[in-house]
Amino acid sequence: MSMTDHPTLRGTGTERRARGDYTGGVYGSMLAASVVIGAGTLGSFPRVELVVLLLLTGVAFWIAHVHAQLFGARLAQEPLDHRVVLRACREEWPIVKAAVPPAVAVAVSPLLGLDVQGGLWLALSVAVAGQVGWSVAAARRAHASWRLVAATAAVNLLLGLLIISFKVFLKH
Question: Per residue in 100-159, pLDDT tens?
């Protein structure tokens, strides 16, 4: 069976990349929100540590997803060569890209007059907004009806609010 015969890998390279971009973007945004939630015990330089933690976690999960693609379905379907590896890296890169806006939010939070907790809340808000944005972009790209676009936005907003509720409840 060739790669294009496999049901999860069917489509042009652009279609596969677009599907991976949105999946990785939504997933990466949720991951970033989770990192912010877990960052309650940072050391002497909490902003720098959180920026580094967000970016490195994104890279670690990107590597894990690339590995899963290369040694999961792809290995069974086609031999590994540099093109296959580069394609997998490119398709999963949005996981890292999704960590950048929350990291930037933390980095610029002092310029906005926010203390460390304010910076955490800003990063969390940016991550949830990214999650909703990626899901809406995916639905629009798939030519979904406006009703379905609204539904996916609502589901992802609810998931983001669930993550935010973890932060609220863990503090009390």
Answer: 999 999 999 999 999 998 999 999 999 999 999 999 998 998 899 999 999 999 999 999
Tokens linked to 31? 């991951």
- The Cα–Cα gap between 157 and 79 comes to 40
78 membership: H or E segment, kind and range: none
* Per-residue H/E/C for 25-53: HHHHHHHHHHHHHHCCCCCCCHHHHHHHH
Q: Does pTM top 0.85 for this prediction?
A: no
What one-character DSSP code corresponds to residue 112?
A: G
Give CA–CA dist 115/147, Å, rounded: 39
CA distance 106 to 28: 16
